[in-house]
Amino acid sequence: MRKLIAFDDDTFDRLKQLARDRMATFQELADEAFADLLRKHGIPVDLKDALRKSASLADTPGKNRTRSKLSGKTRS
Q1: Which of 1, 39, 40, 45 is most exposed, with the fewest beta carbons within 10 Å of its own?
Q2: CB-hemisphere CA count at 13 Å for 12?
Q3: Residues ≥6 apart with Cβ < 8 Å to 53
Q4: CA distances to 57, 65, 72 from 68, in Å
Q5: HEC string of 5-69?
Q6: How far apart are CA 51 and CA 45, in angstroms?
Q7: DSSP letter at 74?
Q8: Could you tell me which of 30, 47, 49, 48 has the C-alpha nearest to residue 39?
Q9: pTM strictly above 0.70
Q10: Is 44 within 8 Å of 38 (Cβ atoms)?
Q11: Is the CB of residue 50 less than 8 Å from the CB of residue 44?
C-alpha cells in the first residue's frame, strides 16, 4: 500500500543522507522507524511479535494462579 507523507526539505535531506550513510533505502529507514513506533506503544509489528506477546500474556496469569494455589495450601 502506498501513502504520501510530506517532509520539509531539511528533514528529507537529512533522511536521504542517513540512508546513504547506512547504505539503506529510504523505504528501509521508514520501515525501521514505523516498527520502532509500534513497539514503543506495545503494538505487535508482525505475526511473530503478536504470537510472542500473546504467549507471554497467556503465561502470566497461569504462573500467578499456580503460585496462589501453592501458597494457599496448608503444610502438615
Answers
A1: 1
A2: 5
A3: 42, 44
A4: 17, 5, 6
A5: CCCCHHHHHHHHHHHHHCCCCHHHHHHHHHHHHHHHCCCCCCHHHHHHHHHHHHHHHHHHHHHHH
A6: 11
A7: P
A8: 49
A9: no
A10: yes
A11: yes
Task: Note whether 15 and 26 are within 8 A (CB).
Answer: yes
The cell for 37 is 513506533
CB 29 within 8 A of CB 19: yes
C-alpha 56, offset from chain centre? 14
What 3-state class would DSSP assign to 1?
A: coil
Q: How many residues does the chain have?
A: 76
The three grid cell numbers given for residue 23, joined into one nine-digit string: 547504505
* Cell 513506533 found at: 37
C-alpha cell at 22: 547506512
